[in-house]
Amino acid sequence: MADLTTEFLGIKSPNPFWLASAPPTDKEYNVRRAFEAGWGGVVWKTLGSEGPPVVNVNGPRYGAIWGADRRLLGLNNIELITDRPLQTNLEEITRVKKDYPDRAVIVSIMVPCEEQAWKDILPQVEATGADGIELNFGCPHGMAERGMGSAVGQVPEYIQMVTEWCKKYYSKPVIVKLTPNITDIRHPARAANAGNADAVSLINTINSITSVDLDSMAPEPTIGGKGTHGGYCGPAVKPIALNMVAEIARDAQTRGMPISAIGGVTTWRDAAEFMAMGAGNVQVCTAAMTYGFNVVKEMISGLSTWMDEKGYTSTQDFIGMAVPNVTDWQYLDLNFVTKAKISQDDCIKCGRCFAACEDTSHQAIAMSEDRVFTVKDDECVACNLCVNVCPVEGCITMKEVPAGQLDERTGEVVSGDYANWTTHPNNPSATAAE
Amino acid sequence: MATSHQASGIQAARLDAAGIAENFSDLHPAYDAHEAAVAADRCYFCYDAPCMTACPTSIDIPQFIREIQAGHAESAAKTILEQNILGGMCARVCPTETLCEEACVRETAEGKPVEIGRLQRYATDTLMEKGEHPFTRAAATGKKIAVVGAGPAGLAAAHRLAMLGHDVVVYDAKPKAGGLNEFGIAAYKSTNDFAAREVDWLLQIGGITMDYGKKLGADLSLDGLTSGYDAVFLSIGLAGVNALRAPGEDKDGVRDAVAFIAELRQADDLTALPVGRNVVVIGGGMTAVDAAVQSKLLGAENVTIAYRRSRDDMGASRFEQDLAASKGVKLMFNVMPKAVYGNGAAAEIELEYTDVTDGKVAGTGETVRLAADQVFKAIGQTLEGQPDALALEGRKIKVSGTGRTSVTGVWAGGDCASGGEDLTVTAVAEGRDAAMDIHSSLMG
Q: Domain check: are A351 and A305 in the same one?
């Protein structure tokens, strides 16, 4: 069994699976259950300033979209930060950390953008013995209306400023949690870096309305006939998170900055992908909220099995391995030619590839009277849509046309040389490849 | 106290009411909404879908399944019923395993097709439970059409003709409509009097007059019909039953399977229906399976289907064969009846093993005797009582692709007519297509 022990910002945890700051980590009772189930760490649900706690709505807090058999694909919430007294949370954090010294306990914090507010809370958090803090600059609903959460995360200057305060009044690692509700994730990440953050975590939830009730004509979740935008998470957001993690991992200014990845991690594979894309660990919420804390067991065994198969002995062995292969479109090899190939042995003759190609792509699939589907190499642009819509995994594959062979579509012999858009004759700003 | 399995002879009350109720419950229980959503989600929405090609009534199956997926079972029902007005019954009795579901690409992929029949039932049941009839009649044409036989073909033709604005009179020799849906077909495929409820629902279109107790050749003549109506559609089914042609066929306890099934279907109390202790059914089609399985469900101790050819030649599908086997019916292949023995009443049947050479069945001389206090003949039905004026093809009324007979103004469809398999769904298609042809020939 591969060793899943992970060290992130010097914080050791028995595995890279942390529970994200959210309802599952709202109180001692849940966190103890999580640790008993095997979670490597938790980010405690966001604490606010001393004083009367925030209140939540008393109607539905969550909305969802589903796939087949009501498999939950996306979850949206309008819940605010913890609605329990600060002292209660601090006492519980202290007790839990004392009882589980081998697990990571990070405290999420969201207080107003005033230095005094941070100066007040940070020593109290430090006194709990927790391993670090995470700054919640991400929640896009409710708290943002009060100038916190994503309202801070959308202004890089504020991120840097608050991060600097935290580094000033707190001695342990500071993780800045980023909102995806921005146009370019690199800017808030650079700001966190400039403020000397120890790491960034991302993504927080995406602004969303899950559906509209067509009888009451109100957005879901509906509270007294009205609804508001909430934060979207779950398997549906993973591709967005993966790209944002990659952007930070390969940006010249933030490259090498530790990343804790969040966004739709449901199985070990999702975690492995995020870590290959540069994350030092992952945080999970929706999978736990959907299936309970025991989902971590599959994540642990799955990641370990895969590492054994690949010969990795430590998570360090594969973290960031996919980052060098993320590039800009302009550098993709235009001389790399593939064609779709349909395996007649595997084909079940549903014709979805034909409908997709004929109606919406390049008319590159032929259909015979007896439902045999074949690719027309002289029309196929290798778009991959047929592969994506085929219900049989592995039935349609993209086969490379090797250098020296004719591409029947272009009528040209495939070149073995790498060539990209920057030097392409159609590019008005092409630099001559001399 | 019910009579036991072991009680000899043909006896009622082998099972108590609870046992009967359990045995004759729905073969394929209806889906609830979530089950339907999950089943519908398995459909791949194939291009030029093979299931649709395999359906004799060409229902747009991917379309109706997608309508279920999107939460509109009633729209799905309309898509079905536009092509097949008896879509509710076909959902229950179609041998889907040899039609749409056999063609389903998921059958190819994983041996588990989309359950098209059950989805069709979900859609049509949802609509019918609302008591709605989704079709309306076109403006009256003033034309009158006679339909003889109120089975699936006749009902489908009558409905389509009424929809097109014609007035229709449907005659039937029996006191009730439905044909084999009502009098044939195993009870567990049409529970809660579904056949009769479907007829009532179908007649909501209006413009159809039902006239029962009228038999062609006795109460009605073809000349009378052709002179009294603008067109005639014959859907008289196959009223004759083939004989065993074996000594002892006249003994008590030897009877036609179709008569037994009809009696069973019309019985108010199945515990009062007598059945043998040792039942042997001769034949290999759906009727043989329906008679055998229902005998077993009534409480017969031993039930055997004896078929003269091999398993692969059997008319009943593999699904039906497995159903029979799962209920405890023994299937014997390559055996034919040689004689029935007994003192007045049947007690034993002697079967002779067969060889099939070039499609011809011949006895090998080796025989076997089975205890048999009841013997059901299910060796095929034949055309009977058809008007002499009509040309035949083989042993059926000769018709064109749209049901035209050799007599001008007379169409025919369903089991009595040539072409197509003897299935409810085929009969519906033939009735519908003949109606369209009658319409175009009358309206020019």
A: no
